[in-house]
Structure formats: C-alpha cells, structure tokens
From TrEMBL:
InterPro entries: DUF3455. Keywords: Signal. Residues 1-25 form the signal peptide. The keyword Signal applies. It comes from the Bacteria. Pfam families: DUF3455. The keyword Signal applies. This is DUF3455 domain-containing protein.
Amino acid sequence: MKNTIRLLTSSSLLISLIACGTAMKAPMVDPAITVPNGHQLVMSALGSGELTYECKAKAAMPNTFEWSFVGPVANLTDKNGIVVGKYYGGPTWESNDGSKVTGKQLAVVPGNPGSIPLQLVKTNGGTGTGAMSDISYIQRLNTVGGIAPTDSCSSDNLGAKKMVKYQADYLFYKPN
C-alpha cells in the first residue's frame, strides 16, 4: 500500500513523495539543517498561524528596544488541509491523538526573503502514543512570513505585542 505525503514548496507547488514500504526520501537542504544519518522522514504537515513578538528593551542596553520573539500558535494540517495537530510555545508539536513532542533548535539558515529562517530541531522526547511518538528531529522548511514587525519599538510602546502571520512545512523524523 502506498502512502502519499505532499509538501508545500516555496513556489507554492505541491510535490508528492511516495513511500512504497521503504523510508521516504528526505529533501535536499542546506547541510546545517540536514537531519543526521540514522533517521527517516515519517510525516509532514503544513503549519499556518501566527508568531507573537513583544517590544522589549535589549539585554544590557536599557535605552535600546527591539521586537523579541515570544512564541508561536499554529495549526498543523495534512495534504488535504485537515487539521492534524497544533504547534505552540515550548516549542511543542502536538497531534490530535494527544501525543506531543518538544525540542531545541540546533541550527537555522536563511529562508525566503521576508520570512523566518529554516530550522533544524532536536526533540527532547515525547509524551503519549501516536503520531509524535519517537520523533527525533523536526525540520522547518519553505517558510513564508513571520519576521519581526517593522513598526516602531520604543519606550512609548514597551510591552506591546504584535501577531505576525506565517506558514511553514514541518517534516518529522524518527530513528531508523
């Protein structure tokens, strides 16, 4: 039986990866965000939502201000646009089956112009049984939007929060 998984490319075209009883082939990406050998691509989802930024004073620079990343809130959808989970602060990826995984960023490389970077995350292990069980690495690819606001950030609006829309493909890997 064949399983088809669709990935949204940066040009918004859909590409199908077909698994015929063997591991799906991971996409070619910058070496800095390549998943190490010994892990296989098992699932992908399109993340669509918002990233929150807050106007804060820069560390060790009390009179200088910047928009600082606070956290994400996004739905994860499958190739048919059906919500299969969510992504939120932690960072945490949670499946509708209740399983979830958290992780730590290992590397980033520039994404599309005006978009957040591509990313490689090493997971901290998961909870529950289901889609997120045993996920070891997550890649964020094909990012659109999500960069910090360009609005003024100063003592006048210190503590203000802004939500910025974004979209990205999330690829999930398990050990072989």
